[in-house]
Amino acid sequence: MSGSLELDRPRFPALLLVLAGLVLWHVIRLPEWPMFTALALFAWRGWMVKSGRWAPPRWLLISIGVVLLGGVFASARGVPGRDGCVALLCGLSAIKAMEARGRRDVLLLIFLGYFLVATHLLYETGFVPAVVLFAVVLLLMVLQLAWHQQDSRGNWQMQLGPLLKTILTMALQGAPLLVLLYLVFPRLDGPLWKLPADRHQSRSGLGDQMSPGSFSSMVQDTSVAFRSDFQGKVPDESMLYWRGPVLEFYDGTTWFREAHEHESPALPEAIGQTQHYTMRLEPGSSGWVPALDAPSSVPAGTTLTPLWQLRQSVPVNTAIRYELDAALNYRATRIVPQVRANNLRLPQGLNPRTNALAMRLKNLPDTSRVDEGLRLLALQGLRYTLEPPLYPSSAVDAFLFDGKAGFCEHFAGAYVWLMRAAGVPARVVGGYQGGQVEGHAVVVRQSDAHAWAEVWLEGEGWRRVDPTFTVAPARIQRGLQAAVPQSELPFMLRDQAAWLRSIGNGIATLNRSWSEWIVGFDQARQRAVLEKLGLGSGVDDVLRNLVIGGFTVMGIVAGWIMWPRSGKSLDSADKIWVKVRRRMRRAGMTVSEATAPLSVLAMLNEINPAAQAAHAALIHAWLAARYAPVSSQHVKVLKQAYRAWRRVSLRPSRPR
Q1: DSSP readout, 342-393?
Q2: How many angstroms separate the CA atoms of 186 and 523, rounded?
Q3: Pairing state of beta strands 255-256 and 310-312?
């Protein structure tokens, strides 16, 4: 096929590498088999280009496409969600690369590359990924312009430097319009479209259950869970308990929660002033909004449970901001009988030694039982560690009397069992504790996950009790790094990784600003910015008029560009030729657009034979600029010849 020779150029393998790189980036998040199938097809196509082989038969490519489509639907168990649709696009792009023959196919592949770039924004909207994707878009634009700049012989008329300069110039020319649209284009409350959620997509962060190892495994994840910005001083670290799932039921191995239908949701009574703050919650929270304990307001987009937990009303897959208030001191003195019974229930036949220990507390007042229970834990010689042993079915007995080593979930679970066995209603609360203080903000990571206990005391209500503080107070006062040996910490939390954490914190700051002002530029922020620009209360009218006026202007410009014209646009050589003909007409000569250059030369020589050299120089310079291979030097020579010819008289020469 005639166009196939274009694909032997170096730029086609470069395009294959760009597309394969975009697919490879998806391997970490999408099903492996369609991704590796696509990568194998790209590698196969690259080998074909290098070896000069033709593409496989069409029936084979159609078979691969059918298998890919069926596999994606089978994996999704129905209509594919986001992951399935992106995987399908990656596979079909690779199949298109296999059958590419000429320039049309290459340009289609480049446009598929733009779509592949956009698919990454369905997963990552941070600053660093955005910079990388912007560079990929520039590279695709360079390749696209390079294919448009081929001459009729298939030669490339521009090298990489001029191509890149042209693309950057175009980008800078479009930047003012981009900024204008960014500021004034109306923001919608919801997305224009969305794919169905992927049913089997795993989420990190807090879950609805707690078993041995649940929280200690989260310590290995140093990614940011959320950031809270306070109005004024940040509370003391020992008060930074971020409330998540409340677990009231225990089956001997796992603490879990069930639907709470015994009482209506109600906020606890705040004692003293509340603390206002803004939370930016990263995706992957499993629907929990870990509010500072205890929440005293319910922000828009969340619901409150009877256990003072905040949950997202609708699952959100992007970072989201919440305005919250917290009561650091609170009281809730009401408890319904069914809730009291739930928080006294224990499985039968387990942990006899802990039950015997609890018998010592039975005759004490409730408050004394709580304090004495903590003292008994302290006397057991327990050790706080990220690497606890595996305990058998009677895990509380094995932890308190045998292994004596555990993480926060072991301490919280053991203490709640001890309190229930002693007749005090108690439950486990999961969430986060502490965080990295940065001025008036706190950055909380998944590694700050923590579990503690709550006990019910008559006349006081629910009281937070953290048995981990009894054994490892440094964990609550100064964080995880101060509570366990360096050798047990993930590498990013160790002292020798401080410089890496500094880099990571800098990137996190960039990501936060990028998310707040670019990705999270919603209606409220847009309104605030426009009001600062002096648009006042008529923001809606201004936005509407700007959008209508902008589209009207763009429509007029587009119509003017697309309006059919009698002639085509002229280059430098054609413009000079028009001037030559115009001057000849003024001199009384009959010349039209169809008059050949050599005929023009004959007419000029006839009218002024003495200037034959100037006439010939003009005509030959124009022919070279018009028909020789493109060169700025030809145009320069033509301009010089035209200026010299302008000094020549076109009046008929008189005989002497």
Answers
A1: HTT---TT--HHHHHHHHTTTTS-HHHHHHHHHHHHHHTT-EE-SSPPP--S
A2: 7
A3: unpaired
Q: Which positions ≥6 away from 547 have C-beta within 8 Å?
A: 184, 185, 186
Q: CB–CB of 507/246 below 8 Å?
A: no
Q: Which long-range contacts (CB under 8 A, 24 or more apart) does 123-130 make?
A: 123/29, 125/318, 125/319, 125/514, 125/515, 125/519, 126/511, 126/514, 126/515, 127/507, 127/510, 127/511, 127/513, 127/514, 128/507, 128/510, 128/511, 130/514, 130/518
For residue 282, give the amino acid letter.
E
Q: Going by C-beta distance under 8 Å and a sequence separation of 6 or more, which residues neighbour residue 493?
A: 222, 447, 480, 481
- pLDDT attached to residue 567: 46
Tell whether the torsion through CA atoms of 455, 460, 464 and 465 is positive or negative: negative
- State residue 113's pLDDT score: 94
Tokens of residue 392, six digits: 């058998």
**Exposed/middle/buried for residue 233 (C-beta within 10 Å: 0-12, 13-18, 19+):** exposed
- Using 70 as the pLDDT threshold, list the residues of the chain that sit under it: 1-10, 54-55, 149-159, 187-205, 216, 259-264, 284-285, 315-317, 393, 477-493, 495-497, 501, 534-544, 546-547, 561-562, 564-570, 629-632, 652-656
Q: How many CB atoms lie within 10 A of CB 593?
A: 8
Q: How far apart, in whole angstroms, are the C-alpha atoms of residue 249 and residue 255? A: 6
| Residue 59: count of CB within 10 angstroms of its CB | 8
**Residue 559, phi then psi, degrees to nearest 5:** -65, -40
Residues with Cβ within 8 Å of 474's Cβ and at least 6 positions away in sequence, in order, are: 482, 483
pLDDT score for 268: 83
- Helix (H, G, I), strand (E, B), or coil: what is residue 578? helix
Q: How many other β-carbons are positioned within 10 Å of the β-carbon of residue 465? A: 22
If we measure between CA atoms, which residue out of 404, 501, 402 comes closest to residue 447?
501
DSSP label at residue 328: S
Cis peptide before 294 (omega within 30 of 0): yes
The per-residue pLDDT for 573 is 83
- What local confidence, expressed as pLDDT, does residue 485 receive? 67
Helices (H), 387-429: 395-397, 408-421
Q: Tell me the C-alpha distance between 363 and 341, whole Å.
A: 20
For the chain, how big is the Rg over CA atoms in Å?
A: 37
What is d(CA 35, CA 26) in angstroms, rounded to the nearest whole number?
Answer: 7
The confidence score (pLDDT) of residue 200 equals 44
From CA 292, how far away is CA 240, in angstroms rounded?
7
Q: What is the pLDDT of residue 83?
A: 85
Phi, psi values for residue 469, rounded to 5°: -60, -35
**3-class secondary-structure state, position 216:** helix
Closest CA to 587 of 525, 526, 648, 516: 648
